[in-house]
Every structure is written in C-alpha cells, then in structure tokens.
Amino acid sequence: MRLSSFVGLLVVAAVAAAQNQTVMIAVGGESNTPGGIFQFIPNNATAPNGTVVTFQFSGIPGNHSVTQSSFDSPCEPLAGGFDSGWILIEAATTPLPTWTITIENDQTPIWFYCKQLNPSPHCIAGMVGGINIQPGANSITAFQAKAASAGSSGQGQNGLVGVGASASAEPLVPSGATHFLGVSISASATAPAGGSSAAGGSTTAGGSSASSSSTGTPSNAIPMAVNLNFLVVLLGMFAGAMMVL
Ligand SMILES: *[C@@H]1O[C@H](CO)[C@@H](O)[C@H](O)[C@H]1NC(C)=O
Ligand SMILES: *[C@@H]1O[C@H](CO)[C@@H](O)[C@H](O)[C@H]1NC(C)=O
Ligand SMILES: *[C@@H]1O[C@H](CO)[C@@H](O)[C@H](O)[C@H]1NC(C)=O
Ligand SMILES: *[C@@H]1O[C@H](CO)[C@@H](O)[C@H](O)[C@H]1NC(C)=O
Ligand SMILES: [Cu+2]
C-alpha cells in the first residue's frame, strides 16, 4: 500500500473514531444539589451505538452503584445486566471514581438504578436512570414512579457485560474511595486483560472467596490512559507506516 493511501486510512479511522459520542452521568448528588443525594444527573441520555457513557461517582459522601434493571422491575437487577458494584466515597477525592460502559444497541432503552439500601433504598428514593428512552413510550418519569412504589431493591450482581451496553473493565477507583463487590461478581465479571477493579483504591468483596484487595499505586493518569487507548493505536499504526517507508 502506498504511504499516501495509508495516511488517508489513518485520517479516515481518526475521523470515524471522533464521531463516537461521549456522555457523562454523575452518580449521586450532594445534600445541597437540587434534587438531593439520590439521583443520577442527568437521569436520561441519548447515546447512539459506540457511545462511551462515563458514570462519575461524584456524590460525596456517597456509596452508590450503577446496576442495570428493566422498566418493569426498576429496582431489581436485570438477568445478564451490568453492575458496577458499590463505590464508597467518604471525602473528596481526586480523581473521582469512574466507570464506563459502551452502548451496543441503541434501539432499546437501557434502564438502571442504584442498589444501595442504606439509609433506605436509593432506587425507591428515585435514584434511577435511562439511556435511549423512546419518545412516546415509557418515560423516565414513569420509571421513577414505578421505582418509588417498589417494595424492595435487589442486590444481586451480574457483572461487566450488560444487555445493550457493556463495560470492558471494573470501575477505576482511586485511593480514598472503596469498591465493594458482592459475592457473585467474581464468577461473572471477567475483566479483559488490563482491566483492574481497583486502581490505587481498595476493593472489598462481600464474600470471602471474591476478595481481591488491591494496593496499587494511586494514579491520576489512569482515566486518561483509557481515553488515550485509541491514540496509542494510532501512534502504533503511524510507526508501522514509518517502517514501511
Ligand atoms: C432528561 O434529562 C435532561 C437533562 O439532560 C433533563 O433536562 C430532563 O428533565 C430529563 N427528562 C426527564 C423526563 O426527567
Ligand atoms: C465507535 O463505535 C463503534 C460502534 O458503533 C465501535 O465499533 C468502535 O469501536 C467505536 N470506536 C471507539 C474508538 O470507541
Ligand atoms: C457501603 O456499601 C456497602 C455495600 O452495601 C457496605 O458493605 C458498606 O458497609 C457501606 N459503607 C458505608 C460506610 O456506608
Ligand atoms: C445499533 O446496534 C444494534 C445492535 O447491533 C442494531 O440493531 C442497531 O440497528 C444499531 N443502530 C443503528 C442506528 O445502526
Ligand atoms: Cu445510591
């Protein structure tokens, strides 16, 4: 292949990648946030296939999760759904813990809730959200109303792979925050190589066999490293082109 066409391909690849959207959703508010502590902000978003949705655990203090559910059962984990596990932030930490999922099917709404029960179920208090809610169909308001009348909130864990959206790694949890995993997540959440459940923070499992405490070094660079993945690939391709030369 001629270098000029190779470079052309690189440009096409870069433009195509740049078109994938990113969406940021805050997990938890603070006591003085309009709407209070128990919410996702925003609680609804439009995210075409390929969109990287970053959940930023920004409610401080907070102890929240992002757990996939269904419109019919807002506060119960969806079979085969994604689940971040709980992330506890007791005091301000930099960077904030984040978890990213990538949208794989934008044709069906993706509903989620926070499964924390203390001091009372956050889901029932309104901590629910939806992605790609269809106009004229089930609304976020209806979902929240359904959650408010739920009798209980399920704690079961599924893992990284969800229905219509999946994560490729456990949440990035800096030192100062704690990641609690349930007993079953270790069985179903197999992070791809390079995935780490605790980047400098600590991971605590609810069950003895699922424990995987981490004492990794705190690193502000980790979220950025994730974002730079594509750049690294591009650089690699560029280096390859140079060698062809
Ligand atoms: C959807 O989210 C937007 C913010 O992005 C908000 O303004 C709007 O009120 C939300 N819709 C509902 C029905 O809550
Ligand atoms: C962009 O989205 C497509 C799916 O629509 C996906 O295959 C591709 O990997 C995404 N690119 C990046 C850089 O995330
Ligand atoms: C945070 O939530 C986890 C899971 O419910 C629980 O084990 C832990 O005790 C909680 N910590 C605090 C300080 O609320
Ligand atoms: C997004 O991906 C799903 C699943 O592959 C597919 O059914 C749907 O048509 C895609 N959406 C668009 C807008 O292409
Ligand atoms: Cu919560």
UniProtKB/TrEMBL annotation:
Signal peptide: 1-18
Segments passing through the bilayer: 221-244
Gene3D superfamilies with a match to the protein in the record: Cupredoxins - blue copper proteins
Keywords: Membrane, Signal, Transmembrane, Transmembrane helix
Tagged with keyword NADP: no
Region described as Disordered: 196-216
Keyword Cell cycle: no
UniProt name for this protein: Extracellular serine-rich protein
